[in-house]
Amino acid sequence: MSRIVFSVTSPNDYASTVEQVTEALKSEGFGVLTSIDVAATLKAKLDVEHRPYVILGACNPHYAHQALEAVPDIGALLPCNVVVREEDDGRVSVVFMDPESVLGLIADPAVEKVGHDVAEKLQRVADAVGKA
């Protein structure tokens, strides 16, 4: 099985990491279209306590357009999700959907190229977050 995610541990606290990830995504041409606070949702819907956990729906419009032009149904695989979560030991993990693997499922050369290019950008985000 190919990898579907890659991750990095942040040296910063949770709130700082969420801000840093958002800014690093922006520097690579991504916007955050959605932000799902999983911990707050679990508390509101199930009255369950959960460590801080957010899913950021990141989108690079240039690459999203290329993928949609090649395969209109690709929207079901967009945006690129990035998870920021606090672990049991207090460390903060940042987990990225691997667009190269996920978009590679389509078996379309144009989409595979988009997946490769976006993966490179997200890897730069991961590298920036891991160094901070």
From TrEMBL:
**Coiled-coil features, chain-numbered ranges:** none
Q: What Pfam families is this protein classified in?
A: DUF302
Entry's transmembrane regions: none
Q: Which domain of life is it from?
A: Bacteria
InterPro entries in the record: DUF302, TT1751-like_sf, UCP021774
The DUF302 domain sits at 36-99
Q: Which PANTHER family match?
A: SLR5037 PROTEIN (PTHR38342:SF1)
Name the chain's protein.
DUF302 domain-containing protein
Per the UniProt record, the source organism is Acidihalobacter ferrooxydans
